User: Which sequence fits this backbone?
């Protein structure tokens, strides 16, 4: 009996030791989700990253691997990507395939493990504009703080991260004052900013001690590719031109037709991807719509051109331009001035270009014969006996009446209980104002205020 008890205790002890010893367990196959950041860090890179982490979480991935090769990009997009990585419950590795400069360095430092190919570099995170000029210190201060905080969060030397932004930081044996820090692969390994050298993915996993793994690569859908195409600044400029041209032709013709449909479609293609990428806010789209409403009121309701028209144009331009900027609500503190200027310049150039092209195209379409005789070209010469004027109108000259509708300058007047088409000599005449007929032309009376 005692022998059986001792045997049972021994048996369960061996089983427990076996269960607690990882070396005796069969190795689990790691699920690895892989995606690339090999373009400029901008809205599309952020959208790809956000999509990647959602998919990795859904498939319950064990590791997310970023293949990095970028010279940097927009600070706001880099901050969003950095934050997403820091908040990830899944370990994130980055494989730097040659370059992780500027915003790319910030993103890499946010990862749990960094691996670099031979000849690669990481650093040079000073904030510059499109021309490569160093921006004011408020941008550098924000970038220094982000780099420092990110390094601290991952247990890396924060002073080194700060030296990648600020040339005044001096670290003995690492960087002299007056230079921005950039590490080679070997230097990064030596200073704790790289786990090891790796020439490919297989090396990354081998160096990480992962023997069994299955890889799932990010595959962008046709819709994702299309959205990426639409947020291209050149395409955005073309869409703005279509919006302006469509509105111009719609305001020139009565009723609702194809120009308005084209303008609405272009506006959807313009705002929708920017909204999905987190650039366009609700209020930016709203002020664009309010601007269009004010323009319509100015053209169709309010006589002359004044405050409503100017406000409409201003709000429309602001709505289009601000939708391209990665501001946080009404906070533009860390949006580069160069980015704001570029957005407004794109909208203004596209708008003026569209108006000029629309006016030219409108004239060509009405005078050319290449569009199936859109306008009547035959002339009915008065010397041949043709006339369009009712000679009885000559008897109305000097008669008094009232404006039957607002004249801006065209409209209708009531003279001797009859309604006539008329044109005001002045800019406009209010409805029911007294008028006097001073002439007629092409079946229209010419009137002025009494």
Assistant:
């Amino acid at each position: 009996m005692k022998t059986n008890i001792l045997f049972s205790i021994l048996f369960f002890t061996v089983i427990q030791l076996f269960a607690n010893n990882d070396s005796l367990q069969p190795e689990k196959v790691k699920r690895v989700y892989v995606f690339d950041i090999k373009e400029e860090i901008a809205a599309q890179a952020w959208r790809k990253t956000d999509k990647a982490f959602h998919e990795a979480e859904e498939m319950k991935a064990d590791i997310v691997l970023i293949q990095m090769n970028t010279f940097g990009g927009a600070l706001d997009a880099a901050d969003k990507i950095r934050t997403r990585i820091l908040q990830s419950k899944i370990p994130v590795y980055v494989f730097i395939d040659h370059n992780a400069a500027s915003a790319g360095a910030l993103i890499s430092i946010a990862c749990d493990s960094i691996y670099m190919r031979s000849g690669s570099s990481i650093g040079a995170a000073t904030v510059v504009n499109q021309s490569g000029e160093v921006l004011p210190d408020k941008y550098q201060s924000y970038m220094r703080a982000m780099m420092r905080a990110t390094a601290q969060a991952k247990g890396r030397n924060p002073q080194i991260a700060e030296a990648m932004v600020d040339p005044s930081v001096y670290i003995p044996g690492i960087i002299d004052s007056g230079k921005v820090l950039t590490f080679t692969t070997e230097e990064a390994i030596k200073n704790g900013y790289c786990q090891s050298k790796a020439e490919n993915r297989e090396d990354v996993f081998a160096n990480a001690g992962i023997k069994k793994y299955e890889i799932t690569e990010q595959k962008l859908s046709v819709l994702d590719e299309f959205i990426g195409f639409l947020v291209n600044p050149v395409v955005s400029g073309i869409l703005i031109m279509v919006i302006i041209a469509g509105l111009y032709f719609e305001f020139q013709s009565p009723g609702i037709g194809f120009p308005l449909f084209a303008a609405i479609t272009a506006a959807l293609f313009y705002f929708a991807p920017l909204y999905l990428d987190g650039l366009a806010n609700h209020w930016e789209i709203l002020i664009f719509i309010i601007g269009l409403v004010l323009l319509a009121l100015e053209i169709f309701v309010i006589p002359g051109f004044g405050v409503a028209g100017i406000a409409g144009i201003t709000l429309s331009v602001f709505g289009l331009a601000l939708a391209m900027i990665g501001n946080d609500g009404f906070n533009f503190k860390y949006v580069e001035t160069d980015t704001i200027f570029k957005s407004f310049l794109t909208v203004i150039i596209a708008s003026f270009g569209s108006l000029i092209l629309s006016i030219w195209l409108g004239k060509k379409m009405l005078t050319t014969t290449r569009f199936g005789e859109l306008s009547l070209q035959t002339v009915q010469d008065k010397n041949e006996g043709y006339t369009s004027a009712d000679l009885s109108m000559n008897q109305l000259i000097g008669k008094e009446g009232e404006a039957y509708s607002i004249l801006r300058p065209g409209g209708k007047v009531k003279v001797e209980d009859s309604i006539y088409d008329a044109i005001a000599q002045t800019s406009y005449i209010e409805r029911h104002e007294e008028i006097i007929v001073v002439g007629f032309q092409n079946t229209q009376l010419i009137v002025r205020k009494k």
User: Anything to note?
Assistant: The mean pLDDT is 81.
